[in-house]
Amino acid sequence: MRQKRTFVTILLVLALLCLGIAYAAFSADELQISGTATASVAEGNVDVEFVAVSPEKAEGVKTYGEIDSSDPDKASFTVADLTTAGNTKTVTFTIENKTENGVPVTLGTPTITWANGTSENEWYEVSYEYGNTNLAAAGKDGASTTLTVTVELLKTISTSDTQTEANTDNTVTITLNANAANN
């Protein structure tokens, strides 16, 4: 008798469980899931390029900017005619977000490298200023900005030997760093 009662109890529990599952399966209620989905661009898939420079390299122009034609996220700035400490020269680059699929980007600190391969120079100091560090998606308003780079002479150039030494290391390369913007 006791076995029969246990069997009936188990059978009733299973029947209730099946009824609950059946009710849930055939119920008219809709399941709604809410939340936020996030997508990101893989590192290295952001395309931000230098597209214009002023002043450009030309005959007779001694201080100029130049965009690397084989790697447009790099540009250089060659400085000349600075003789007194505190003198400066400025070049303005135009930068554009060319990343596909409507991805806005945030510009980071550019990498500065002198002709001798170092990030610092005993003769010159580099400063820069972006017009805007947050670029809209490619093709939209706000997808481009400017980068103004200023080079300041730190020491007065007094002799021809000093002039030669200062002018052998007077080109700085600027490499853009950018990431997909967090929206």
What does this protein look like?
The protein is α+β, with helices and mostly antiparallel strands. Helix content is 18%, strand content 33%. The chain contains 2 helices and 11 strands, in the order αβββββββββαββ. 20% of the residues are buried.
Compact description:
The chain is 18% helix and 33% strand. It has 183 residues and is of the alpha+beta class.
Q: What is the percentage of strand-forming residues? A: 25-35%
| Oligomer status | single chain
Number of strands: 11
**SSE string:** HEEEEEEEEEHEE
Strands in their spatial order, largest beta sheet: 1-4-9-7
Main beta sheet strand tally, sense and closure: 4 strands, antiparallel
How big is the Rg? 32 Å
Name the overall outline.
Answer: rod-shaped
Query: Would you identify the regions where 5 or more consecutive residues have pLDDT less than 50?
Result: 37-43
Helix content: 10-25%
Q: Averaged pLDDT, please?
A: 79
Class from secondary-structure proportions: alpha+beta
Strand and helix map with partners:
Blueprint: H1 2-26, E1 48-54, E2 64-67, E3 74-78, E4 88-97, E5 105-107, E6 111-114, E7 124-130, E8 134-135, E9 144-153, H2 160-167, E10 171-175, E11 178-180
Antiparallel strand pairs: 1-4, 2-3, 3-10, 4-9, 5-8, 5-11, 6-10, 7-9
Keywords:
183 residues; alpha+beta; four-stranded antiparallel sheet; 11 strands; rod-shaped
